[in-house]
From TrEMBL:
Pfam families found in the cross-reference section: CAP
Listed CDD domains: beta-trefoil_Ricin-like, CAP_bacterial
Region of interest called Disordered, as start-end residue ranges on this chain: 1-22, 144-193
Protein name: SCP domain-containing protein
Taxonomic classification: Bacteria, Bacillati, Actinomycetota, Actinomycetes, Kitasatosporales
């Protein structure tokens, strides 16, 4: 047997694999299933291990994407959502855990199913920045994590079983119309004032001094928001190769320290919720050393989501 190959078991059955539009419950070999904590659909809600109970919080609708991967939408929003409410399983690479997040078509939301044997599969994120990582069950009530392959760990072995929230016959779920998320309100108008007020409200709760809006930092933020929206990307490097610090310097702001937050979103409250639920972004917002902020927003152009950018500086 060549190194790294999976041993073949005589008489083993091939696992059930998903098809586009089907809804399944994802059950691990340790007996728990992938569950949306407290049946909440807000961005940042943990996807946890829990005992099977047949609710829609444990159903996942599979939407086929490129290279054999799937987007996993919680059954809580399948066929029911309006703009900005279609929530999918997302790899939060800041924490190494799974959570719900608005669809933005990046690799950390696409999942590949690798057949093992006897109806078991491994589930791998297509994001490879941190290496090849696999969905791993946890103790009941704890978030699912992403870990390197461990053939001896039953928490990395999964089965697709009929979802209790949808009636079905024999486990083969009937395809449903694929949702197309639409932008919500809140992206237009005086978004900078709305965002500035939201940031300073969060800072006030922890005793951090308020930040002031700076036109130069806002120019850097707007430049990057326009770039990401026009290319349907969410990243810190610009398509011209610029870094956040390059853009801040080019705008004429001389900063002793600086930071940038970016997110796909169609409203200020949604963007703030996503950032405040992410430890690294939250630190930037609450950092008492920063005394200036820049804010940029570009409405969607090629994808389903606009792009918000915050740049922070210390003058």
């Amino acid at each position: 047997m060549r190194p790294g190959a999976t041993p073949q078991t005589r008489g083993a059955t091939m696992p059930t694999l998903p098809q586009h539009g089907q809804t399944w419950t994802i059950k691990s070999a340790n007996g728990t299933v992938a569950d949306v904590r407290s049946s909440q659909t807000a961005a940042g809600t943990a996807v946890q291990s829990w005992g099977s109970n047949g609710t829609t919080a444990q159903g996942w609708t599979f939407w086929a994407k490129e290279n054999g991967s799937f987007l996993l939408e919680t059954q809580l929003t399948t066929g029911k959502h309006v703009g900005g409410q279609a929530m999918v399983m997302d790899f939060n690479y800041s924490t190494g855990q799974a959570w719900l997040y608005n669809e933005h078509n990046q690799p950390n939301q696409h999942w590949c199913f690798e057949p093992l044997d006897n109806d078991w599969v491994r589930i791998r994120t297509t994001r490879t920045n941190e290496g090849m990582l696999y969905l791993t069950a946890a103790a009941p009530g704890s978030p699912l994590t992403l870990s390197r392959q461990d053939d001896g760990n039953p928490a990395q072995r999964w089965q697709l079983v009929p979802a209790g929230g949808i009636s079905s016959g024999g486990g083969q779920q009937q395809p449903q119309p694929q949702p197309q998320p639409q932008p919500g309100g809140g992206g237009g108008g005086d978004f900078r004032s709305e965002m500035l007020n939201a940031v300073n409200a969060e800072r006030g709760r922890v005793g951090a001094p308020p930040v002031r809006l700076d036109d130069r930092l806002s120019a850097a933020a707007q430049r990057h928001a326009n770039d990401m929206a026009s290319h349907d990307l969410t990243q810190h490097n610009g398509t011209d190769g610029s870094s956040p610090w390059d853009r801040i310097a080019a705008a004429g702001f001389v900063s002793r320290s600086s930071a940038e937050n970016v997110t796909p979103s169609n409203s200020v409250p949604e963007a703030m919720q996503m950032w405040m639920n992410s430890p690294g972004h939250r630190v930037n917002i609450l950092n008492p050393d920063y005394n200036y902020i820049g804010i940029g927003y570009a409405p969607r152009q090629r994808g389903n989501w606009g792009r918000y950018v915050q740049t922070f500086g210390k003058a």
